Request: fold
Amino acid sequence: MMLDEDLALIRAHRNNIHRYRRLTRTKLSDLERQFVDRRISEEQAALEALASKTFPVAFTLPKGPLAPASVRAPS
Reply:
């Protein structure tokens, strides 16, 4: 249940960021632009915090000689 709620919140933050970015492409006063820029930063920080809490482990594939042949970088 908690994962579903976290994913819904992640989607909400992402949608808010997209909506605010669309607003930046419109004619805004300096004060409005400052507000929108601040909201983008706040939403981005909240999204990153929630994503790192929800998905705490990041996996990377090795690309060196110890990697399986299917993921090795071409020589």
Notes: Residues 13 and 63 are 33 Å apart (CA to CA).
